[in-house]
Amino acid sequence: MAEMQFKTEVNDLLHLIIHSLYSNKEIFLRELISNASDALDKLKYLTLTDEKLKSLAFDPRIDISFTEGDKRTLTITDNGIGMNEDDLNNNLGTIASSGTKRFLASLTDEQKKDSNLIGQFGVGFYSAFMVSDRIEVVSRKAGEEKAYKWSSDGKGTYSIDPAQRDGQGTTITLYLNEDGADYANRWELEQLVKKYSDNISFPIFLAYDDVTYDDKEKDKDGNAKKVVTHKVEQINSCQALWKRSKSELKPEDYQNFYKNTFHDTDDAMFYLHTKAEGSIEYTTLFYVPKTAPFDMYYADYKPGVRLYVKRVFITDDDKQLLPTYLRFVRGIIDSEDLPLNVSREILQQNRIMSSIRSNSVKKLLAEFKRISEQEPEKYIDFIKQYNRPLKEGLYSDWENRDELMELVRFKSSKVDGYVSLKDYKSRMPKDQKSIYYISGGKEETLKASPLIEAYTKKGFEVLVLDEEIDEFVASSIGSYQSLPLKAINKSGSMDDMKDEASKQKAEEGKGVVEKIKASLKDQVKDVVVSSRLTDTPAVIVVDDSAPTVQMQQILKQMGQPVVESKPILEINADDPMIKKIGAEGDQKLIDTWCGVLLDQALLAQGVMPKDPVAFTRRLHELLSK
Ligand code: ADP
């Protein structure tokens, strides 16, 4: 059969693996065993659910053997689901996951050297090329007659030919290169399987030649006779880790299981192992990765939870197992009560599943809370990775809103780093009646806002909501423990600092307000006298219901339709510039002043003036006077 070309992205991936994982090349074995175990999981499921395969005698196992000498080889065999010709082409000639493809494309050269990054997506089968000159895969799909051999040296092409194989399954033979020579060794293999694959729930057997010397029988030179016995020995303990009791498991056990199962090179940030007994029985083991999965913000992200029923693997591709905002969680759900042949549709409406799901969410959120209280440093790491998905939960998971409100963190005018709403509330002075925030821009721009200064002077802390999602979040929170959340750059907060003096100021300012309104006409919705500005002539605020000016700008850049809401100009009647306008009689000059006033207020919020040329011309006009 003809040589076939790898898809370009496979070449990229191969290159990347070989260069970035080199120091960790032993993981290839874990990857191949994990594939074999998946193949056994898939077949086990089919023998229980698929009429055609129900009669199959199935004795699941993974076999490892090797040859020493000049031509060292290593062979990994499973009697799992197997692959036919199409499967071989699709699975071992391309990268099936579009997420992985895009992730690869998005990496810079610098990032490509970071093996932690690459560890985040299963490097899989291709990692075996780190230790092989050539790889052969002989496979026969369960329920089919024909077997095929896939073969490649990993240098751009592969071939597929008809082959022979007894029974279903896959045999992978690695023709080890110099770097792989050490792996054709009993002790090395045993140790690697113990390290990485001990919890694989199928038996892994190692075949080796046991050499002993018999003293009683001498060879012709008078030395003890060499006796070679061929042995096959099970080398993993083969117990589903999550079914073992917490007390017998060590942190390394949990972490090794995590790295094996979820293809991470790093330990998990933390994990949570729970057994529920009672009306419904199930076990969950959840992990939070140290770094957010690379596809967390892709619509076609790969879900991280594997569903088992009585230890039989059912699916790892169901986005309903946990709510979308918890898509970064990896783990296992193993139910004793679900039927084995649950379909996706059934899962969605199943009462047992929805109860497991909702309890799992509660457990996870409770654990996040515990960490926030007992391990604040770890919680900061967690927030750095997952604040944003948690915020999504605020507007998608009403049931757990109160818990989520305690978990999310915001930046603030008062302290560096992150604050919780609880901290904010506890620091509030007695006369403060609302939680203030500013949103719709970059952190630096927001923090430099003259409005913040006014609040800080009064001893009020302002939350700095600089993430795009924040504006939706703030409006969906609405209030926290009966304190309304108010955007200081929206009209609803303007009256908050009114006192007797400011009422008088508003009266006095009426004249200049009218003058500015008449000059700016429909460029502004309104002009009002400020009760809060001190060192700035004017700021922009928007209507409570409207997105901030910065948000409007972002939406526009994203190509979203925006109903433009006109700004409200809030002026500081004590400012010399405003006073000047008040005193000026020449209409042309008033127009110039007002134009500059509006544009510089926009600029201060990081928003471009509508007509930058006109702005600079006016500025020049004033400066040269
Ligand atoms: P991943 O395991 O992350 O999907 P791999 O590159 O390791 O990526 O494998 C690609 C695909 O090849 C697998 O998803 C699976 O469908 C198939 N595959 C690999 N090894 C086996 C095997 N031993 N038996 C059956 N299918 C396999």
Please report which band the strand proportion falls in: under 5%, 5-15%, 15-25%, 25-35%, 35-45% or over 45%. Answer: 15-25%
Widest beta sheet: strand line-up: 1-6-5-4-7-3-2-8-9
Query: How helical, in percent, are the residues?
Result: 25-40%
Report the radius of gyration as a whole number of Å.
Answer: 33 Å
Give the helix tally: 21
Apparent shape: elongated
The ligands bound in this entry are: adenosine-5'-diphosphate
Mean pLDDT across all residues, rounded? 89
Largest sheet composition:
9 strands, mixed
Give the helix/strand class: alpha+beta
Instruction: Please report the total strand number as a whole number.
Output: 22
The stretches of 5 or more residues where confidence is low (pLDDT under 50) are: none
Distance between the termini: 85 Å
Please describe the topology of this protein.
Elements: E1 3-5, H1 8-20, H2 27-49, E2 62-67, E3 73-78, H3 85-92, H4 98-106, H5 109-112, H6 115-119, E4 132-140, E5 147-152, E6 157-163, E7 169-176, H7 186-197, E8 204-218, E9 224-234, H8 251-262, E10 268-276, E11 282-289, E12 305-309, E13 312-315, E14 330-335, H9 344-349, H10 351-374, H11 376-396, H12 401-407, E15 411-412, H13 421-427, E16 435-439, H14 443-447, H15 450-457, E17 462-465, H16 470-477, E18 479-480, E19 483-487, H17 500-520, E20 526-529, E21 538-541, H18 549-557, E22 568-571, H19 576-583, H20 587-603, H21 612-623
Parallel strand pairs: 2-8, 12-14, 16-17, 16-19, 20-22
Antiparallel strand pairs: 1-6, 2-3, 3-7, 4-5, 4-7, 5-6, 8-9, 10-11, 11-14, 12-13, 15-17, 18-19, 21-22
Helix pairs in contact: 2-7, 10-11, 10-12, 11-12, 11-16, 17-19, 17-20, 20-21
The structure holds adenosine-5'-diphosphate (ADP).
